[in-house]
């Protein structure tokens, strides 16, 4: 049988040739970047856990064995069993089902904070890095004002000022998560602004807004994607901390941090009440860290 793997029309031959268009070049980068990423077993493990989390959140009504809000005081603080895989809490609610539904809240917080922080940090940093002068001074002093306080302390202050609630917790986290992203975008923009193609675009009459949006921001994206993916674990821990302190999602919402908080009174005699949601926070946070490390190896142009 003739070897068709490397025939002129095969996919391998298509990927091994030099790119002939911008779209083909992008396809090459995605293909080889994916191979590089999957070659890292820990990063692949993190990606699999994140995909599993997404699937659990989507199919929560079918995966949950009980209604996460229904109380059964007769089965309060029951240990793990066939009827309740992770046991029950002080109100007899099934912990496994509450963790399954809590995955939706975790993804909601991570997604909403990421899509808020990314554009804000990118816009502020790219504008300051490219324009420089008084614009850079004003924007960076504002950024330094936020960075001068410990992130968790400032988040707690915003959450306390806004009041308890899931949406308020998301807003409080977003208000304190954009300054590091802006700093990174500014550093990348200052490097890009000195490139020859930027000077050529400026000589051709391109406006500062066009250069920032069409040339500077796209080149800042790889570093920012890595930074945001690594920040996701911190977002999860911060959200769990707010829930633990009663400033995040409010009862009876099945949020992992709030579950840990209500169960801490029973942890000495009923370990599963705290251990199960705590393990969920640990595993998901670790998965996002592993995923971010793998993305950094692929997207960081300074890597060998």
Question: Would you mind describing this structure in some detail?
Answer:
With 304 residues, the protein is mainly alpha-helical. It is 71% helix and 0% strand. The chain contains twelve helices and no strands. Helix 6 packs across helix 8 and helix 10 packs antiparallel against helix 12. The longest helix has 37 residues. The chain is elongated and about 75 Å long. The mean pLDDT is 85.
Q: What does the secondary structure layout of this molecule look like, with pairings?
A:
Layout: H1 11-16, H2 22-38, H3 41-58, H4 60-63, H5 95-131, H6 133-147, H7 151-162, H8 166-192, H9 196-203, H10 208-244, H11 256-263, H12 272-299
Gap from first CA to last CA? 40 Å
Number of helices: 12
Q: Which structural class is indicated by helix and strand composition?
A: mainly alpha
Report the count of strand segments: 0
Query: What is the 3D shape?
Result: elongated
The major pleated sheet works out as:
none
Low-confidence stretches: none
Strand content: under 5%
Radius of gyration: 24 Å
N to C succession of SSEs: HHHHHHHHHHHH
Proportion of residues in helical segments = over 70%
Mean pLDDT: 85
